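Supplementary Methods S3. Input chains for the assembly prediction are listed below.
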Amino acid sequence: MLQQTQASRVAEKFPAFLRRFPSPQRLAESTELSVLSLWQGLGYYRRAKNLRAAAQMMVAQFGGRVPRSVQELQTLPGIGRYSAGAIASIAFGQAAPIVDGNVARVLSRIADRRETTKGKIAEAWLWSTAEELVRSAKSPAVLNEALMELGATVCTPRVPRCGECPLKRCCGSFKAHSQEFVPLSNSAAPRKTVVHHACVEIRGLKIGVEIRPAPGLWAGMLSPPVVESSSVYSAAKLMRERRDIKRIKKFQREFEFLTTHRTVRIRVYQVEFHSGAKVRWVDVAKLNKLAVSNAVLRMVNVAQKNMDA
Ligand code: SF4
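Predicted structure tokens for the full assembly:
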């Protein structure tokens, strides 16, 4: 839950999640929708789906327990080298390295390595350095957590607080006064733009939703029907794409929603569905308790504010 999500938001959701799914068995037996609804508001919903799939694999292959070795952990869906190292070292006390953005920055500065932290050579150096350190530590968990915490709170990207840093005596960048440009910045990948035409009908206290198809953004979650495209559709084309729409009452508003790699232009249409349309009607007021993304909550808010009678 904490990957790329603020701790304060996770703190609101974690206890209820653990109460409902106290073991891999209970999570493995759940439905995807029930897991997604308890994940609501945390974003990056693929993590929830992977966690459920990982629980199923733990039951099928590891006797219902979380495996302990980095190699076994990495066979679980959604668990890469970083997560496997974090679980193995912090939960099971094994000498497994972890490298995230914070650790990469700290290690680069201590060695005064004037390179980016991305790419095969840089990553190999970071992982082998982190491994060397963790193998020499009394407590792998304390070392890994300390490196991450130091990067998050003291050795920050801009204006690191070197005066308070316990590593300043052995830090190459501190000695060379190069800490503000080490490591060199990784050039960001260009962000892709997609258009979501959201077809919203609110009837009294209910709203029409469906399960988003896979593959696609927010697949498996509930949402008013959406037509996804790379450019803006005319209303007539939208009607052709969604044969269950009887009429488009009006185009309401467009807003942008940013995900990790995409800019999603969400265009909200007020529509009327045919009586036989395969949408579920759910209470608008209870939408935030269901498996919906924050984009959907914003979409519905726009629809309610701009609705024609
Ligand atoms: S001395 Fe400064 S640059 Fe070096 S590790 Fe500490 S905070 Fe980072």
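Residues 46-61 form the longest helix (16 residues). Strands lie at 192-200, 202-203, 206-211, 222-223, 226-229, 245-258, 262-273, 280-283.
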